[in-house]
Design a protein that fits this description.
Strands 1-2-3-4-5-6-7-8 form an eight-stranded parallel barrel, surrounded by five helices. Helix 1 (16-26) crosses helix 12 (239-246). The protein is built from twelve helices and eight strands. It is α/β, with parallel strands linked by helices and 248 residues long. It is globular. The chain has helices at 16-26, 46-52, 79-84, 95-100, 105-117, 130-134, 138-149, 155-158, 179-197, 199-202, 218-222, 239-246; strands spanning 5-9, 36-40, 58-62, 89-92, 121-126, 162-165, 206-210, 229-232. Helix content is 40%, strand content 15%. The two termini are 17 Å apart. Bound molecules: 2-phosphoglycolic acid. Residues 9, 166, 171-172, 210-213, 231-234 line the site of 2-phosphoglycolic acid.
Length: 248
């Protein structure tokens, strides 16, 4: 059985004081049974958020990092630096980073390998644009992204990763993929993993859906056979909604 994983992606939202207020609102009510719970926060609030949620089962992640250990890379942050402030997860290859910050399949692969070598769990995002969906190439786009992300990643490492299928047209738009549409692509992803790693490994890798997930649709999404969690943007910023999401 794959353990469900619900992760918030806070993007570029919340100051330290806002994050602490959020933590105070959820901390007495966020225990979940058998659900892994994560918040991927802006760099500046990781440490304070972690401290504020001490003693709960909420784990903290980041949203990006550089694949080199150190160097003259102005403005960048390494995996070690993230570990040092308490991050245990990191989002890799989010479509907003692919779109606005030049993230490529190659850098995604380098980041996946570096994250794993530093004991950070990468949440690897894949997904098609509306134009790609309309031209019938969703499966090719998504499986190519998976092949590239997992290039030279061993099966032992692959099972430690989490994949997030996020159709770009559903992110922040209020347009959720239907649960059947989402499950169909998650199944295609698992078939690709099966080709790369075989059955035992592919059955262990968790695949989230992301894109306008809210308290009102999470139950339906989580009831699908090949969806093992959700990566949630907007709705994860509101304490009351976050609690509903993690207790789906
Ligand atoms: P959304 O964002 O839930 O606001 O659509 C999801 C994401 O970008 O991970």
């Amino acid at each position: 059985m794959r353990k469900p994983i619900i992760a918030g992606n806070w993007k570029m939202y919340k100051t330290i004081s806002e994050a602490i207020e959020f933590a105070n609102e959820i901390k007495h009510d966020c225990d979940t049974e058998n659900v892994e719970v994560v918040i991927c926060a802006p760099f500046t609030i990781i440490k304070d958020l972690k401290n504020a949620l001490e003693g709960t089962n909420v784990k903290i992640g980041a949203q990006n990092f550089h694949y080199e250990d150190e160097g003259a890379f102005t403005g960048e942050i390494s995996a070690k630096m993230l570990r040092e402030v308490g991050a245990e997860y990191v989002i890799v290859g989010h479509s907003e980073r692919r779109q606005y910050f030049n993230e490529t399949d190659e850098t995604v692969n380098l980041k996946v390998k570096k994250a794993l070598s530093e004991s950070l769990t990468p949440i690897i995002c894949v997904g098609e644009s509306l134009e790609q969906r309309d031209s019938g190439i969703t499966e090719k786009i998504v499986t190519d992204q998976i092949k590239a992300a997992f290039s030279t990643v061993s099966p032992e490492e692959a099972i430690k990763t989490v994949i997030a299928y996020e159709p770009i047209w559903a992110i922040g738009t209020g347009k959720t993929a239907t649960s059947a549409q989402a499950n169909e692509v998650c199944l295609e992803i698992r078939e690709e993993l099966l080709k790369i790693y075989g059955e035992e490994t592919s059955e262990k890798i968790r695949i989230q859906y992301g894109g306008s997930v809210k308290p009102g649709n999470i139950k339906e999404i989580m009831s699908q056979s090949d969806i093992d969690g959700a990566l949630v943007g907007g709705a994860s910023l509101v304490a009351e909604d976050y609690l509903k999401l993690i207790k789906f």
